[in-house]
Design a protein that fits this description.
Blueprint (H helix, E strand, L loop, with lengths): L16 H4 L10 E7 L2 E11 L3 H13 L4 E3 L4 E6 L10 E11 L2 E9 L13 H106 L2
Helix pairs in contact: 2-3
Length: about 240
């Protein structure tokens, strides 16, 4: 049962702070009004529902009315036929007319009237004081539940965005780690290259020295070869 899950203390409304941002948590209060329902002006009760999705409010209201074993029609406004409110203290069924209208960008007005069977529930009839209190309590519970459900949807959306942002941050951190590793590897390569260059320079110096020594030996050997050639020609 949807109503059994609701806590009516002021603490139960704390989640509404998500709807209002840093604003003060709004108070949900049922007021007695006269409003047009089912084409006629009737004694009724109005309560604000906080959220920005009318469909969620309609869903919660329909569920709450069905919990009263009513046959619910939503062709135009809401009509709950033969609803049983055990809280009324009798076994009589009632008909409930209701409508949901946008009040502001983030607030809907939920208006409901109770047909007791020829007369509509109001504070003017002191004999129905128990029913009056029970219905106002029930209507407030519907508004609280619908408001909390609206915030819960906002929480889901916010959590998805947060998760996406966290994944993006994790990816950026990993990219940074890879870049830092590349820098370190390249720095190591630079050091290795510097050492290799120095080694090559020394090798070049050694090579140049050996070339000079070898060139000197070649010149000497050429003299030896030439002398031998002359000696060979002198033999007769």
């Amino acid at each position: 049962m949807i109503m059994k899950k609701i806590i009516l203390s002021s603490l139960s409304l704390a989640l509404l702070g998500g709807w209002a941002g840093a604003q003060e948590v709004p108070t949900i209060e049922v007021k007695e009004v006269k409003d047009i329902l089912n084409g006629d002006t009737r004694d009724a009760f109005a309560v604000d529902v906080y959220g920005n999705d009318k469909g969620l409010v309609e869903k919660d209201l329909k569920s709450a009315l069905k919990d009263k074993d009513a046959k619910v029609s939503t062709k135009k406004d809401f009509f709950a036929d033969n609803a049983m409110f055990k809280e009324f203290g009798d076994n009589n069924t009632v008909d409930v007319y209701a409508k949901i209208e946008e009040k502001t960008e983030n607030v809907f007005s939920l208006v409901a009237a109770v047909d007791l069977g020829g007369a509509y529930l109001s504070s003017a009839d002191q004999a129905n004081a128990v029913k009056l209190a029970a219905f106002k309590k029930w209507l407030r519970e519907v508004a609280v539940q619908a408001s909390r459900d609206a915030v819960a949807e906002e929480v889901k959306t916010a959590e998805k965005l947060l998760s996406k942002q966290e994944k993006t941050l994790d990816g950026l951190k990993k990219d940074k780690e890879n870049l830092e590793k590349d820098i370190k590897d390249n720095e190591n390569k630079i050091e290795e290259s510097k050492k290799a260059i120095e080694a090559d320079k020394k090798a070049i110096e050694e090579n140049t020295k050996k070339q000079g020594e070898t060139q000197s030996e070649i010149e000497k050997q050429r003299v030896v070869v030439k002398d031998l050639q002359l000696k060979e020609k002198a033999v007769k």
